[in-house]
Design a protein that fits this description.
The chain has 364 residues and is of the alpha+beta class. It folds into 2 domains: 196 residues, Lysozyme (Orthogonal Bundle), CATH 1.10.530.10; 122 residues, no CATH class. It is built from 13 helices and 7 strands.
């Protein structure tokens, strides 16, 4: 009789566990459906504003050059000058539009190049701090500042100027483009990584997340470009999408359902706080039952890029978390890595995992 009761207790216990797991999965699925709907609405809203901006630029330039994850493009108010910083290649290009009839385009453009550079070097970025500080050197001796920018333009940039006549544009004004390109210092990436090191260490220590993983993710996401903006769009150092990862992280930190704004996400401290919180939620909430820490990090990094459902699908063919976790627990970290490389649906998350873990070694 005791055996019968014990057996019944085990059945009831298992039933409760299965009910809780099913309930958690249903709650997760409902949340994801709502999040997908919010994300679609967010994309429509963002695309409308961006389309107008792109149209205005194309009207004057005949082409559109915009910010990406690793490139930052800033136009001046009349959209006749622009700065283009490539944080991965370590180059800066200043372009100025000048009427085609102008006989001395370089002379006319010289002051505009200086003004555009001053604006680029200012602390009036959305980030509130100049991300290029100490990364441009004048005569290889001193950092470029507002005080020596005129000297830099006249002595170093003037001789590098190139002039290109542009094809007719929609504004029907014939123009020529005066351009100059120069390099950042060789260790520009290291300088930026050091700048954000205190922020990374502060939030990873609070959440017990390995800092080298976060550094590897920031390197891969943005090359430490705080003004990063992808086509999705995602914003800032850790490329947070307000309507998905941003919403998840905000709710996790503040217990409030709210999307962070692009302006907030361009702030390095806030962006890293959100990114680390999202990593924490993926690893210690969604994949909390993954027993091996390295396996959990592999799945977490992949999910940060492609979503929890897609990672789960790579293990079982379904988006359910529990069966994926169960299968992962039968594997070594090496086998989990192989499973992700062989069965993730898209190439991008596979490359992302390889890059993040490869680059994380630089920050140990």
């Amino acid at each position: 009789m005791k055996i019968g009761y014990r057996f019944l207790a085990i059945i009831v216990s298992l039933s409760v566990v299965m009910t809780i797991q099913a309930s958690e999965q249903e709650e997760f699925d409902a949340y994801r459906r709502q999040q997908n709907a919010d994300f679609a609405s967010y994309l429509d809203e963002q695309e409308k504003d961006y389309k107008k901006f792109k149209a205005d630029i194309k009207k004057k330039w005949g082409e559109f050059l915009g910010s990406t994850q690793k490139e930052w493009v800033m136009y001046n108010n009349d959209k006749m000058s622009r700065s283009h910083v490539d944080f991965e290649k370590g180059t800066v290009t200043i372009d100025i539009l000048v009427p085609v009839e102008e006989k001395q385009p370089v002379k006319v453009a010289e002051k505009k190049i200086q003004k555009q550079l001053e604006q680029t070097l200012s602390d009036k970025w959305t980030t509130k701090k100049n991300p290029l500080a100490n990364q441009i050197m004048v005569e290889k001796k001193e950092p470029l500042t507002k005080q020596n920018v005129e000297k830099f333009v006249k002595k170093e940039l003037k001789k590098k100027v190139k002039i290109t006549k542009l094809p007719p544009t929609k504004d029907k004004v014939e123009k020529q483009k005066v351009s100059v390109t120069f390099d950042l210092v060789p260790d520009h990436l290291k300088i930026r990584a050091e700048r954000y090191k205190p922020n990374v260490l502060k939030y990873t220590s609070k959440r017990n997340i390995h800092p080298s993983i976060v550094f590897g993710m920031i390197h891969t996401e943005s090359c430490f470009n705080p003004m990063a903006r992808s086509h999705i769009p995602a914003y800032g150092l850790m490329q947070i999408v307000p309507a998905s990862g941003g919403l998840d992280a905000y709710q996790f930190i503040f217990n409030k359902k709210k999307k962070p704004t692009p302006k907030q996400l361009y702030q390095p401290d806030f962006n890293i706080r959100m990114g680390v919180a999202y990593i924490d939620k993926i690893k210690n909430v969604y994949f909390k039952n993954v027993e091996n820490e390295m396996s959990a990090y592999l799945m977490t990094v992949a999910a940060y890029n492609t979503g929890i459902g897609n990672v789960s699908k790579a293990f079982t063919g379904r988006t359910s978390i529990a069966p994926a976790t169960k299968k992962a627990n039968t594997m070594s970290p090496k086998q989990v890595h192989r499973q992700l490389m062989d069965h993730l649906t898209y190439e991008e998350p596979k490359k992302y995992v390889e890059r993040v873990f490869g680059r994380s070694k630089m920050y140990r």
